[in-house]
Specification:
Number of strands: 5
Shape: globular
CATH superfamily: Dehydroquinase, class II
CATH topology: Rossmann fold
Number of helices: 5
Strand content: 15-25%
Structural class: alpha/beta
Strand order of the largest sheet: 2-1-3-4-5
Radius of gyration: 14 Å
CATH architecture: 3-Layer(aba) Sandwich
Largest sheet: 5 strands, parallel
Length: 149
């Protein structure tokens, strides 16, 4: 099985460190990618790390992952609450999917409590800040290893 994991990030996550630091912290997406790559090396994973403000690009990467990847970690950001299209794309992916959110979405506005993506995710990590990405990578690696055994 492929040790490739796609780490996909949705809209506005390119502004991490600048946008609402009281909610999302001061780390940038580049900081998160650096930490993910260091952990991936320890876990013997290869990463494709992407961010887009465009729904169709996230869908295209999910389709691409169908052919090459052993897992997906996705922070769909605002698309979490709106995108049936991303859910449909993830439903075509036959390997572990971990949904991640930097903030605890359940302590925020009511509309953030519903996730379309959770309907497909093998696990959801929310409220652990940017450290949630590392937790997600550890979990997806564990699920990949379990499936391969």
């Amino acid at each position: 099985m492929s040790r490739l994991v796609y780490v996909l990030n949705g809209p506005n996550l390119n502004l991490l460190g600048k946008r609402q630091p009281h909610i999302y912290g001061h780390e940038t997406l580049a900081d998160i990618e650096r930490d993910c790559r260091a952990l991936a090396e320890d876990l013997n994973l290869e990463l494709r790390f992407h961010q887009s403000n465009r729904e169709y690009e996230l869908i295209d990467w999910i389709h691409e992952a169908r052919e090459t990847a052993g897992g997906i970690v996705i922070n769909p950001a605002a698309f979490t609450h709106t995108s049936v299209a991303i859910l449909d794309a993830l439903n075509t992916f036959d390997a572990p999917v971990i949904e991640i959110h930097i903030s605890n979405v359940h302590k925020r506005e009511e509309f953030r409590h519903h996730s379309f993506v959770s309907g497909r995710a093998d696990g959801v990590i929310a409220g652990f800040g940017t450290q949630g990405y590392q937790l997600a990578l550890r979990r997806v690696a564990f699920l990949m290893d379990t499936k391969a055994a």
